[in-house]
């Protein structure tokens, strides 16, 4: 299970990760990652959403979206449990304070655990690798 400090619960947090974060799509899932730098200028509401979290560096938080298009409830819950377990093992590699939303696509219903793991790793690698390049000034070296 994912620790409660690492869960996205509020609709606003999901919306922030999806709208302001970067996206990496794979055949089985889509991953949205929003770092602290993407949240500049927003009102800090961590005290409202997580009153039990100690002050200091906020931990990375994750949320999951598995729609009815994936399948019946039993299948959706299986996919959600697999994704939760995979993300839990990777939270330590994410930047502190980042928000991650993993959206399962319908093909995830018939995918194996290893297939989900491969797609999640590929998406995270792409998102985390691209972050330093995004901070470079545009037009540099021209």
**Gyration radius, in Å:** 16 Å
Helix count, per DSSP?
A: 4
Q: CATH topology, which one?
A: Ribosomal Protein S5, domain 2
First-last Cα distance: 50 Å
- Spans of at least 5 consecutive residues whose pLDDT stays below 50 are 43-54
Largest sheet: 4 strands, mixed
Q: How do the strands of the widest beta sheet line up side by side?
A: 1-2-4-3
- Write the CATH architecture name: 2-Layer Sandwich
Provide the structure class: alpha+beta
Query: Average pLDDT across residues?
Result: 82
Question: What does this molecule look like?
Answer:
The chain is an alpha+beta fold and 142 residues long. It has a single domain, classed as Ribosomal Protein S5, domain 2, CATH 3.30.230.10. It has four helices and four strands. The protein has helices at residues 11-20, 46-49, 73-90, 113-134; strands at 22-25, 29-34, 61-65, 99-104. Strands 1-2-4-3 form a four-stranded mixed beta sheet, sandwiched between helices. Helix 3 (73-90) links the parallel strand 3 and strand 4 (99-104). Helix 3 (73-90) packs across helix 4 (113-134). The protein is globular, with a radius of gyration of 16 Å. Residues 43-54 have low confidence and may be disordered.
